[in-house]
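Q: My labmate handed me this sequence with no annotations at all. I'd like to see what the chain might look like in three dimensions before we decide whether it's worth expressing. Could you predict it?
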Amino acid sequence: MTVTAILIDDEFKSLAILKNKLERLCPNVQIIGETQDSEEAVELITNLKPQLVFLDIAMPGMNGFEVLQAIAQPSFEVIFVTAFDNYGIEAIKHCAIGYIVKPIDSHDLIQAVSVATQNIADKTALQKNTQLIENLGIQSFQQKKIVIPSQEGLEFVKIEDIIHCQGTDGYTKIYFLHSKPIVSSYSIGHFFKLLQHQDFYLIHKSHLININYILKYLNEGYVVLQDNHKLPVSRNKRADFLEMIRKV
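A: Here is what I predict for the chain of 248 residues:
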């Protein structure tokens, strides 16, 4: 499948390296435009309507997120390119959008293009890009949404609605207070990385909980959640866990 692409990076050297690697490693990518200017980037995307955009995050003028926000219907797949923007990476991960880190690793580039090509076929870009833009405007972590690929497609889930995640055989079952659980092919480790910084605690190798839903802690080493699940707290985590919830 041939994929039309635009490359956007304010650094000439970075742009040249990316172009060279794409031409050598990703022959299905047809580069139809490139620019170092963020305002010109909006014009190129609007006029040329690419299927894929490689978009640097840290740029003068408009950053990569602001470029995306400036597009009326961002229905193209995005692979963000970043050197250090940790906040940016977290926001991108929450929406299941691709990214690569400078200096660009060849394997990472090939993998990102492969995933993007499949996503183009699935036509999920507009939903994910719209969710990213929405999340960027929300200050509260709990009110943001994450995108969860499931057997039926993509689930857009508000973080504050997640009670806990249970990992089993490489899959994760996600429980909610007012809706049915969903099963994701992502491991519990994936969700730990997404959610660990705000109100989520890995009480056991198989159980990640939203501490806002704790009803009680039992002396024998279990927590009871608002959905009446009784889950074990690993022995080596109990002291740290108890100290953490006493501060809440």
